[in-house]
Amino acid sequence: IDLETYIYWSGDIGRQFAEALAERARAAVKVHVLIDWIGSRKVDSRDLAMMREAGVEVEKYNPLVWFNLARLNHRDHRKLLIVDGEIGFIGGAGLADIWQGNADAPNHWRDTQFRLEGPAVGQMQAAFMDNWTKTTGRVLDNEDYFPELRPAGDHYAQVFFSSPRDGTETVRLMYLLAIAAAQKNIRLSASYFVPGALTTEELVDASKRGVNVEIIVPGAKTDVPIARYASRSKWGPLLKAGIKIYEYEPTMYHCKVMIVDDVWVTVGSANFDNRSFRLNDEANLNVYSAEFAAEQARAFEEDKTSAKLISYKEWKNRGLCTKLLERILAPFRSQL
Questions:
Q1: Which residue numbers are catalytic?
Q2: Which CATH class for the 2-136 domain?
Q3: Residue 334 scores a pLDDT above 70
């Protein structure tokens, strides 16, 4: 069992996972857990001790060291779980009680997570091995981790990962290429939507050539209010170009999904912001399938029923204090 996650917090979910992983380790299953040093700051040390005592290998990614403070800004934002090298789980959900429900209460976030089987699980395993090797210096490379995988369905799928350590902006390029290729529609669910100049230009160009662009973002119920202000400050050109932006109202909207032309979907840990594009380690699942895209489009349309459409007039007439706060936050957009 290989688990890599940004958030691992104390609570019912954290304890249940610790108990389940410890039980498997005691049954002689090799269990590797990689959690982000900052994202796991709320984890119960007793849960970690329980796992380690049972034989689980638990490592923290990029802990604080005095000789390299800059690496604190480079976090492991991936959310991966791989079992026997054959079954994988990927999406936006971490390990905390806020993911117990499905937007059925204000303290239960709305999110999207998928179970994956087939050859693409090998790519997911490679994503886990990337940071496991960087953190521990150990390579896990036998058939227990990379068994022969046969197709398990009809959908074309791939898992890819990015890291600033490798000098790549894979996530950003993936979004830009998908937007540039769109011919009919783009549906974007974005928990943290802070577009830069180039991504804004691409979205505006898509709308101008007749692509119907719709975006759902968190509303007032957000865990990072400053990200919401930074996001809203960038909406002018998008709304003016006819792009529809909705704010989800029931609870925190943590989905990270884009559907293009009802045939291609990307989902995973990557947000639509500079932090995911250039600072954090991310992993996404891409699926090329009209059937799968239709399922995600239905979920998107259902989310719209619980979201408020923001007009250009409403955005332009936002309060003076809001505009002032947006200006104050402008220098920090690259970190959001």
A1: 77, 79, 84, 254, 256, 261
A2: alpha beta
A3: no
